[in-house]
Design goal:
The complex is a heterodimer. By secondary structure, chain A is of the alpha+beta class. Chain A has helices at about 15-25, 55-65, 100-110, 130-140, and strands at about 1-10, 30-35, 45-50, 70-75, 80-90, 110-115, 120-125, 140-150, 150-155. The longest helix of chain A is centred in the middle third of the chain and has 13 residues, at about 55-65. Chain A starts with a strand and ends in a 6-residue tail after the last strand. By secondary structure, chain B is an alpha/beta fold. In chain B, helix 2 (about 40-50) links the parallel strand 1 and strand 2. Helices cover about 35% and strands about 15% of the residues of chain B. The longest helix of chain B is centred in the first third of the chain and has 15 residues, at about 60-75. Classes of the chains: A alpha+beta, B alpha/beta. The interface of A and B includes residues 63 and 65 of A.
Chain lengths: ~160, ~575
């Protein structure tokens, strides 16, 4: 089972160390962690995707809530979450494959960030699933580099935050 | 400079260091422990004129444990100061120790100048990063304007909610930078609740479960040592015939001499304590961690019981053992509500059963053999001679478990022991802190020849400040607890657990200007202990004991509540 955990934390130096350290120290299985500013410059939002059984996830949430810098914590069920992720992918190809890959990039709805005769870097922003689809689609070519941000999320219920 | 030439400060703080000392004065911090060094010279300069007394330990670890002992005995936040680099890293064990036992501590460390941070400067260590997992919270102050707010937050965090150590790393230039007090009085941290109020529904569920239970057991931990908990607990237990098992941290919260008291549960608890848990239909954890040394095999814990858990830290509830009745909130608030809600109900059958378990499986001080003193007898003699009117501090190992078994404690904060971390060397410095905690009680240390040698440099502190600590060394010439495990589980292969050389501890004490005696004959034991206690000032008694003695009963690690280890009657002494 996986859960999206959304944290609002005091924007202080070391806050990421506290969050990341806790996750490592207690041997939790974190798939992604994404941090960024919110509408309030004193507050940062950290989104974690954590895998584990109900008991483990319950502990993860309680231990994170205990961190002094954590102002608010929400476990958002996937069905109630608006989620998004961004990825940059660099693929290389032989010149004769260029047409094929360009049509694939169009088909997958990817944004071209740079293109040369034998390589291209594309960007996708969307659900985790659409990022997976793009990666799978490009897999037959040589993926030379990839950067994923990890999932960010907000609950569908607007009153919640 | 002597005390007479010291001038007390009577002016507003001019720099960061003075601001720290000024903060101490305004917040009732009248005693701090520490050890100076390059990166805290400005702070020590300010302390020189301050009102707070500073106790100079002989090692930063000693200073940290002393602050810890002070906090455990008094309930107030202990303060320890150390320099950067090695000074700070020497605090690590002390911080981890306080963290595991939820002891309120504020550690202030010096650091290299902010401009040198991260350059591997002389005596630079990233104590902020190092201390993250072993503190409740920590700070690196980079701006002088933040210092006062950080101090206020640190003391607030250390002493409220689930207490714990907080570290403040203060670079040298922050100490010397111009600073003035902002006069702010309140601290508020969003998302942090210093005293969580329990949910009515949860308290009612617990009250209902207690009313319906026929064989209830309170399982009490360090979280219950707070102000005013003891009295309510006693009333609840006596009114409804609830048995009480107490962890090392809670010893004395419920008086050991009560019929309903079953003492320590778990690995080295009395059989009757573990059998009562095994037969209970309701275990009520109060400020406990369901630690592996108590619970053993989680699957076999209290098989007939529903489990309730009251804790100020919701993360403890359900962490190891599944809980049927969770109550998250301040323990005193919960107990006060329970006391109002629950109607007293006598349970004569349960009382009778408990009495029978106690009489069938008593804890026994074994007879001496070969004219060797039994360590249990020495500890019992100390307990009888102090009669509960002393703070007993222990180190870690066999003597600690015997002290848990044979010292009778009747009040909270009178049995101080390193539980969670199990820090050998805790005892002597913690005794120093306990003796200076203003309780007015005598302090006796039960140590072992192993533990004592880890921090014995603090004998100099004891002498310098003439701290009347009575040191009883259970001297069995070996690392008894590990030796015991080797005997039971490693085919009597005593690898590195027998000390082939030990100093003469009584002579060692004398070198430090402390009266030292040695006792070897069981017939002299009681008088020697009495003499140790009655001689004014500090003193040391080296009790040469039977080295083959084991702590029993014992439930091997990870085993069930009733899987008692059957030891040989008289195992040979290792040589």
């Amino acid at each position: 089972m996986k859960k999206i955990i959304s944290l609002l934390v005091r924007n202080r130096p070391g806050v990421l160390s506290h969050v990341a350290g806790l996750v490592t120290r207690r041997a939790y299985n974190v798939e992604s962690i994404a941090a960024g500013p919110t509408e309030n410059r004193d507050i940062t939002r950290i989104t974690l995707v954590v895998a584990g059984d109900e008991k483990v996830l319950d502990q993860v949430i309680k231990q994170l809530r205990k961190l002094i810098d954590v102002i608010k914590i929400d476990a958002i069920p996937h069905e109630n979450a608006m989620t998004g992720e961004l990825a940059l992918i660099t693929v290389s190809f032989t010149p004769e494959k260029k047409t094929e890959i360009m049509s694939l990039i169009g088909l997958l709805g990817l944004t071209v960030k740079s293109i040369e005769k034998d390589r291209a870097t594309v960007m996708i922003a969307g659900s985790a699933q659409s990022v997976d689809t793009a990666i799978n689609g490009l897999a037959p070519f040589h993926i030379r580099a990839m950067a994923r941000t990890g999932l960010v999320a907000l609950p569908l219920d607007r009153d919640n935050f | 400079m002597t005390k007479e030439t010291k001038k007390k400060r009577g002016r507003a703080p001019a720099n960061g260091a003075e601001l720290i000392v000024d903060f101490f004065e305004r917040n009732g911090v009248d005693l701090v422990f520490g050890y100076p060094g390059g990166a805290v010279i400005p702070l020590y300069d300010a302390l020189h004129d301050g009102n707070a007394k500073h106790v100079l330990a002989r090692h930063e670890q000693g200073a940290a444990h002393a602050a810890d002992g002070f906090a455990r005995a008094s309930g107030r936040t202990g303060v320890v100061i150390a320099t950067s680099g090695p000074g700070a890293t020497n605090l690590v064990t002390g911080l981890a120790n306080a963290h595991m036992d939820s002891v309120p501590l504020v550690a202030i460390t010096g650091q290299v100048n902010t401009s040198s941070l991260g350059t591997d400067g002389f005596q630079e260590a990233d104590i902020y990063g190092i201390s993250i997992p072993i503190t409740k919270y920590n700070y690196l102050v980079k701006n002088p304007a933040d210092l006062e707010d950080v101090l206020a937050e640190a003391f607030f965090l250390a002493g409220t909610g689930r207490p714990g150590p907080v570290l403040i790393d203060v670079p040298r230039d922050i100490q010397t930078a111009p600073a003035k007090s902002n006069g702010k009085k309140t601290v508020s941290i969003p998302g942090y609740d210093p005293r969580p109020v329990p949910d009515d529904g949860e308290v009612e569920a617990l009250a209902g479960a207690i009313s319906r239970s026929r064989r209830p057991v309170f399982y009490v931990g360090g979280g219950a040592s707070g102000e005013g908990v003891s009295e309510t607990l006693l009333k609840l237990a006596e009114d409804s015939d609830i048995a009480v098992v107490s962890t090392l941290q809670a010893k004395g919260v419920f008086p050991d001499d009560r019929e309903l008291s079953l003492g320590l549960p778990g690995m080295h608890g009395a059989k009757y304590a573990n059998l009562a848990i095994n037969e209970s239909d309701l275990i009520i954890g109060l400020g406990v961690r369901f630690d592996d040394r108590v619970v053993g095999d989680v699957r076999g814990f209290a098989p007939l019981a529903r489990v309730a858990h009251v804790d100020v830290d919701p993360a403890e509830i359900g962490k190891r053992v599944s809980v049927d009745i969770p109550v998250a909130g301040d323990l005193k608030l919960v107990l006060d509500r329970l006391a109002k809600t629950i109607k007293p109900s006598k349970k004569p059958a349960w009382r009778e059963r408990l009495a029978r378990l106690k009489s069938e499986h008593p804890l026994i001080v074994p007879e001496s053999r070969g004219n060797l003193i039994k360590p249990q007898a020495a500890i019992r003699a100390l307990s009888e001679a102090t009669g509960g009117e002393a703070i007993i501090v222990t180190d870690v190992g066999q003597h600690q478990m015997w002290a848990a078994q044979f010292v009778t404690s009747t009040k909270p904060r009178r049995f101080l022991s390193s539980g969670g971390l199990g820090t050998m060397g805790f005892g002597l410095p913690a005794s120093v802190g306990a003796a200076l905690s203003g309780t007015g009680l005598p302090v006796a240390l039960v140590s072992g020849d192993g533990s004592f040698q880890m921090t014995l440099q603090e004998l100099a502190t004891v002498r310098q400040y003439d701290i009347p600590v009575k040191i009883l060394i259970i001297d069995n010439g070996c690392l008894g607890m590990v030796r015991q495990w080797q005997e039971f589980f490693f085919d009597k292969r005593y690898s590195q657990t027998v000390f082939e050389y030990n100093p003469d501890f009584s002579a060692l004490a004398k070198v430090y200007g402390i009266p030292g005696k040695r006792v070897e004959n069981p017939a002299d034991l009681t008088d020697s202990v009495r003499e140790l206690l009655e001689t004014p000032g500090p003193g040391l008694l080296d009790v040469v004991c039977d080295g083959g003695e084991n702590v029993l009963p014992m439930i091997p690690a990870g085993k069930g509540q009733t899987d008692f280890y059957e030891a040989e009657e008289n195992p040979p002494r290792p040589s």
